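Student: Send me a single protein entry containing the residue sequence and its fold in token form, directly below this note:

Tutor:
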Amino acid sequence: MSTYLLLSLPTSIVKSGDKDDAFNTVKSHGIPSETALYPFAIPDFKIGTLDTLVIQADELAKLDAAAEQAIAKSVDVLKAIFDGNETRISENKKVNDKTFQSYLQSFAWNKVKYRADRPIPDIVNILKAEIHSLDEDIKSKYSSYQSVKANLQTLQRRQQGNLSTRSLASILKPSHFLTSEYLTTALIAVPKPSAKEFTATYETMSPMVVPRSAFTISEDAEFILFGVVVFKKHAIELSHKARELRYVPRDVTYSENASDQEQAETKSAEEQSEKLWGETLHLARTGYSELAGAWIHVKTLRMFVESVLRYGLPLDFVSGCWVGRSKAISKVKDSLEGQYAHLGGNAYGKDKKGNIMRKDDANVAELAAGTIGGTEYTPFVEYLFEIA
């Protein structure tokens, strides 16, 4: 899995103040065989007032986290849809038909969906509404699919279990039931090892059991299904006694159309499950693409807002995105923070050996609390992240 480091630094890090020179200087801190730095274009948004920027910084931090959670949910749905098949999951994790990394490397602000000439609060509200709507749609559709799938599994288990649990609709016949004003036929599933004991004792399990009335209806590898004739007023007592003896009374009323109804119900559930599977997959796949795209737009706004708050006006900073394995990107991050620690002011100093280090005191804690989302204070604007 790749790790990404979005960052911006003032062009004053080079004497020329040129953006290309600044970009190449930042790039020199990389590990050529393990990392790559790509330009990351940030539009010139309407800045507004300082108070507005501070408010939007906090809103964007919350929206960033919400988008990341929504993406993770869409991936969870894909995992469930494909039963954890990583190949199929990966095939469906695309952003505008590209891998996330390709999308990020060639990122360009979507001017049609999110007009950069609008005030930042307006753009934030559009992104917030889109992310919330997609997240809710995915959750709702997946919940419907889960419900239908659970119902189908229940129906299938009823048809595939043993005689103590499965549906008896396809087994029972009218001849198995005694129709009388006072008598009824009780159905009892008995474990095979207990069959002899049952046939020897069933007549005394409750009052008014008709002697020698037990008969075998069906059997499988584990159970034998017996029918026993008993007076109706003692049928419940017979069932209670059967449970005490670890037999399984089956409270089933015979219906001539029960088997056909069950088959029709199962077929309907299968068709509905298949339909919702396709709809859920489509929504999760589309949702991942739209959410991941929206997430990067949120991060772009965060980069811009904090760069303005950190570096001031006029706008003069260079931005880029590092890509690589986690350990390699961490080394790049540490190298850059060491090189440009002076941008962090009093938050950084040197240890006894002369190495750059972040101070750990109340002033630094106050600086960290003032950053967007209360993240760890760093000497320049940076966001380290991965995607589900």
Observations:
- Confidence is low (pLDDT under 50) at residues 361-374.
